[in-house]
Description:
Layout: E1 15-17, E2 23-29, E3 32-41, E4 44-50, H1 54-59, H2 61-64, H3 79-87, H4 99-108, H5 114-128, E5 130-131, E6 140-141, H6 145-149, H7 153-158, H8 163-174, H9 176-180, H10 187-195, H11 202-212, H12 226-235, H13 242-248, H14 256-265
Helix pairs in contact: 3-14, 4-8, 4-11, 10-11, 12-13
Amino acid sequence: MTLGVLGRGPGDPAFRVCPDGTLWRASRTPEGPGTLCVAARGGAVEAEAWGPGGDWLLDRLPALLGADDDPSAFVPRHRLVHEAHRRHPGLRLARTGLVLESLIPSILEQKVTSDEAYRAWRLLLQRFGEPAPGPSPRMRVMPDPRAWALVPSWEWHKAGVDDKRSATIVRAARAAARLEEAAAMPDVQAAARLQAVPGIGPWTAAETLQRSNGSPDAVTTGDLHLPRIVGYALTGFRGADDAAMLQLLEPYAGQRHRACRLILLSGVRLPRREPRFSVRDFRAI
């Protein structure tokens, strides 16, 4: 529940959950590639890591598991949120401390279906990533910033990534050092740092900071579904937009992302009245 948001769909080469609940992550840390294996056994967390970045990952394991998170600051203001909060006492907001790791897949998710974005992430890591250290087979560490910046245009095309998103990723990769500094910044400054890169807006910044910084207040605006889900869950109204969602979340100022996580965990879903978006194949364009 805490770490699942770090995976990017089924088949993510950098994230795997085994049938016994053991979780594997492959990351590119400031000290190099690393693989982390985490398991909960007998009320304790056990972890092992491999590669040049292994020690870095182990040192930051408590933050990854939400040790820096303070759920006691959250006060439910709606019956549904209160019930979700009661039913999920173990929820913490993970903090990876790695900006590009969350930023690039968030850019891939701009304005497309989840399936399209997950497929692109999977293909790009398989093509340009490197084998993850350690015993977990077929896992990949994402490319370093230079490798992202050098991906040829036809490879983006093969992965189904349009020119706008690929150009944004290249710009982000070229500013990687400055963007990674956002992991240690307060939310407002961190969001401003990310949005200084053309092509990165509030939606992408929030989706990144929720994971890299464990931000409890980085609410996602500009999303197609979230405002309507929040509006329907809290009021029964199906047509909420960003402004209405933010107004409803006002009582949770400072904890708006946590409120949204709990609303999604409640299981409430907007009744479907429209067909799903079709998956576009940019390779045919």
